[in-house]
Design brief:
Chains A, B, C, D: Homotetramer. Chains A, B, C, D: Its cofactor is Fe(2+). Chains A, B, C, D: One of its GO terms (molecular function) is catechol 2,3-dioxygenase activity. Chains A, B, C, D: Pfam families: Diox-like_N (PF22247), Glyoxalase (PF00903). 4 copies of one chain form a homotetramer. Chain A is α/β, with parallel strands linked by helices. Chain A has 6 helices and 17 strands. In chain A, a hairpin with a 7-residue loop joins β11 and β12. Chain A is globular. Chain A starts with 5 loop residues before the first strand and ends with a helix. Chains in contact: A-B, A-C, A-D, B-C, B-D, C-D. Chains A and B meet through β1, α2 and β17 of A and β1, α2 and β17 of B.
């Protein structure tokens, strides 16, 4: 009862082409807080309002993209139950040992029909926020860069969105909040899924190649902070993909940009609260432009195609 | 798994001294949408982004205050399970017939240790939003008054907050997000509880009399909308209790005011996202002022004492 | 001494292709207040915070564009002095009789080197604001559409920007706040001029054809109102040219769109306060993109070329 | 013609009880930039968007309060003309030598009927902004504390407001934008004066003692920045006088607080643009509360009485 099973998006593990450059970028421009480095050379970050040890992990590689994306579940019992449900549904799982990621317990890893490596885990060390838990200030002074509140969601691109949606709704107990339809009026070009009251915790979109990262999204407090984020990006010559605008889907306000390795990220505010008893919102093929960018009412196919 | 059991605060039933005056106020100043009237003379309202038929019910009475406060649960099975759990915990329940409230299914009613009449229900007719579910606009044009997004939570005052907290955490699977302590360092003067990722879905505070209403809160989109709300209140000579400020608790931004019958209400924005695995934030007795009003850092005892 | 001579941009007279459609648009979408119609069939509007009778005049024509743009001067003595200064500088002037425009005194009309019909006038009837002058509310309830505070400035495109700049600085006592340079590092592609503490009251840009209207700009209160403006445009299927972003020049936040006749307009907030003793800001040719759109850091030549 | 004579409020010279504490406060909490110290031990500050060398000067003293308040005039000719006008009007003036204040030219000093030491000056060294004058960013990164855009105005309390108003309107060519009336319906309890398009550049209020400082005001960009200012004050245990609200007068949004010596200051955003041809807004005695604090609709007499 209550919130059980999957609680939230927990960590995004991202491949970058130049680790030093990436660490500088995520620290000083995006404004994440570095929380550790491991023996594999991976660098861990959290956002200031997150209590867990990390939500972003960078690894140097010869190509950009997503290593894996993990969800925090409520407890070990949930982890076991979800693993057995995944297997019953026909998904192979493996366990990654506790400690393989810093401050993180055992992970159940599986591949989604969309070709992404996903994970569930029940334990991640609470390191708390800079404000502490006793008479806390509303936000910490001395942050750098954009300084998002938390890692919010990811949009993953790949094949078989329909089966991935079924996996998330039937096994992981997410619910669909919105979908964008293809011109057949039936197939989802993109589907937005929530395991909470957030307008989305994960989204999937069709892409010719499996396992692609469209973007990881970081939450900001307000539309004014979205402007500030875009300002900071330009001041730092960040490659901005889409300047401040509103999504039709989720109503959220957004700026899209690329990290130095070409991984797209989003700084995002707003979006409604919703519940599993709400019927999904549907966007028709003709209104796909408004669905994605409510003001432009048009979306360049490159926006979908460009992934890492 | 996922969101089950109690989903959200669903309806507040409020007693008013002059129904016509109250309907005018809630329609034109607060900006709720009237959705029906029943044979008992009650008037039903929803906020524009709510999909259910009603979240506020007004009834004329010779004294102001709360009739009852209801929570939407996910389904009939949850309703049955929660009722049997309540009884097992020693709480008497009764069923109110479907249809007794407009567009609302059978309700399980019980009294909290704090002396409030609370309800659970699984069914309320979906009437949707003015924007619809297909290619929706982000918000509807032509709203009146303050026009909150949704009814957000209620703060109830009464006796035995400790036992009420236990009821909500042990039986209804809420979790404590924050508490304000008395000078004994142990007793909660107020406790804030969530059944979602919201910073609070319900709160209870100590009061010498049981069953008191401190306020019903309505969500706004932004701090700028909080200013606009206060402006509209002043333009309409609404009795404002507390002008725009930030809470320490929840970080939310707030204006408190009174409806024409003296029922306090709040227009509220912000507040963080949280999860059941977060440890509660504690405010010490010495910092109670900052907990309640972060800028004033002081709270007049009348703020707690004045209830309906 | 003090503010004398030219006080402010006062009226924009615009040609539209279909007057009824235009009146509907400017009333219900942009949210100007109609204040009168004259015997020539012209329709007059003001913004809600303007005290003068009109700031926008629409006239039906077989082509879109600017009829003329007028500046309010402090008094008749200023009008006479400025007229004689214009003539001494070699600019022909003519007087348009008081009353030719509704509620407007005698106008001194002249053509700028850029090929625009400009006017000065000392009298326009004060009709006041909806809030009145005694214990006023901060803003009026019941407005429609975007509802700008006031008409802010115009950007006019044509030839001989250099001579036009000299006219405005030497004769009309404007001062240059910013300029965007061509690749010769000397010639201004665009120049921004102020007669007040506003970051611009008028601007001129090079264009192959004389007398072109790039846009009339309307002031909004905040960046959140800029978002709302873009939302309202999309809800009403207005042709949006540029979605919310920030200018490098003036720092202002902006949305550009077209009225139903294709006349570009801007809804604008922010921009700094400046003074005639400040040295102009210069944008180099290489940074013209950032100068115009600070986040995109690129400007499509069509943005300059498309005028009416 | 154009903007001549007095351009703007230029510098506030403030007495503080502990210079080190004050420098720490104005640097790290208010977020002004220190620009120099002189042989008298005075410390000079500017706000980030000001181009002149200083707008705030602190001097240690055994009592808090205002030393003097200065206005920048357009040029030496204006300075001479204004001085001779002051004398003709019966005001004694004296010249303070160039260089007596750092980076500042000769000043014409006089005492207002309200008992304040005021100054005019034509020269203050341009040190520019951190963003520079060539392809500037919209704001500088790395600021500390509240970081206002500029010193905006001062509210001075003392005797003979009526004669002071005449001095400012008849000699210095300011114009009255608003006044709050006493219960005789004639006498101004407070008068707000502008020499620009700002809603006020200086204000005077009745006080039993002459030469009192009610507050110096610093401009912020937005209502969200007003919230942030109040947050920063509370985080730093600054004594807040009035938490975020809106003024009826000027419509501006405000937080009032005290520096460590007890000098009140304001962080302020908004306010309308106005012009010398606008009739003043009047607030009746009965609505004095709304005039000062539009939401509270009440003002504690201590708010006026407490001055330094």
């Amino acid at each position: 009862m209550g919130m059980s099973g999957v609680l939230r998006p927990g960590h995004a593990a991202i491949k970058v082409l130049d680790l030093d450059e990436a660490v500088h970028f995520y620290t000083n421009v995006l404004g994440m807080l570095e929380t550790g480095r491991d023996s594999f050379g991976r660098v861990y970050f959290k956002a200031w309002d997150e209590r867990d040890h990390n939500s972003l992990v960078l690894r140097q590689s010869d190509r950009a993209g997503l290593d894996f994306f993990g969800f925090k579940v409520r407890d070990e019992a949930s982890l076991d139950k979800l693993e057995s449900n995944l297997r019953a549904w026909g998904i192979s799982t493996e366990r990654v040992a506790a400690g393989e990621m810093l401050a993180t317990g055992e992970r159940v890893r599986f591949e989604s029909p969309s070709g992404h490596l996903l994970e569930l885990y029940a334990e991640k060390k609470h390191v708390g926020t800079p404000m502490g838990n006793r008479n806390p200030d509303p936000w910490p002074q001395g942050l750098k860069g954009i300084a998002p509140i938390r890692m919010d969601h990811s949009f993953l691109a790949g094949g078989d969105v329909a089966k991935t949606e079924k996996l998330f709704t039937e096994v992981l107990d997410f619910y669909v909040t919105e979908r964008i339809l293809l011109d057949d009026g039936v197939t989802s070009a993109a589907v937005f899924l929530s395991c909470s009251t957030k307008s989305h915790d994960i989204a999937f979109g069709l892409h010719p190649e499996p396992g692609r990262l469209h973007h990881v999204s970081y939450r900001l407090e307000s539309w004014e902070q979205v402007l500030r984020a875009a300002d900071i990006m330009s001041m730092n010559k960040v490659s901005i993909d889409i300047a401040p605008t509103r999504h039709g889907v989720t109503r959220g306000a957004t700026v899209y940009a690329f990290d130095p390795s070409g991984n797209r990220f989003e700084t995002f505010s707003g979006g409604y609260e919703t519940y599993p008893d709400a019927e999904p919102i549907e966007w028709t093929f003709e209104e796909m432009g408004s669905a994605v960018f409510f003001h432009e009412r048009n979306v360049d196919p490159l926006f979908f195609e460009t992934t890492t």
